[in-house]
């Protein structure tokens, strides 16, 4: 079984409509591991974020790719 999970709400990716989750993840770090659904330890700093799953390791993200604020 190769289910994947939503990084924001933790529900299975096959569940209906994750449009709001996808939009929120543009500005927010992931909260759930997409492989095992564990809640991740998240640290946010001005330049980006780090999210760590105890089973699958760390993810890193930055805010440099975001469009400038109008």
Q: What does this molecule look like?
A:
It is built from one helix and three strands, in the order H-E-E-E. The termini are far apart. The protein is flat. It has a three-stranded antiparallel β-sheet with strand order 1-2-3, with no helix packed on it. With 70 residues, the protein is mainly β. The chain is 9% helix and 24% strand. A hairpin with a 3-residue loop joins strand 2 and strand 3.
List keywords for this structure.
1 helix; 3 strands; mainly beta; flat; three-stranded antiparallel β-sheet; 24% strand; 70 residues
Integer average pLDDT = 85
Instruction: Give the SSE string.
Output: HEEE
Overall, the morphology is flat
Largest sheet: 3 strands, antiparallel
The total domain count is: 1
Helix/strand/pairing category: mainly beta
Distance between the termini: 45 Å
Radius of gyration over alpha carbons? 13 Å
Beta-strand portion reads 15-25%
Assembly level: single chain
- Unreliable stretches: none
Please count the helical segments. 1
Strands side by side in the biggest sheet:
1-2-3
| Structure summary, number of beta strands | 3
Fraction in helix: under 10%
């Amino acid at each position: 079984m190769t289910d994947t999970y939503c990084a924001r709400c933790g529900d299975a990716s096959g569940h209906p409509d994750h449009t709001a989750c996808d939009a929120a993840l543009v500005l927010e770090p992931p909260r759930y591991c997409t492989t095992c659904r564990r809640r991740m330890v998240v640290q946010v700093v001005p330049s980006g974020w780090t999210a760590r799953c105890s089973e699958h390791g760390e993810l890193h993200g930055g805010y440099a790719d975001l469009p400038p604020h109008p």
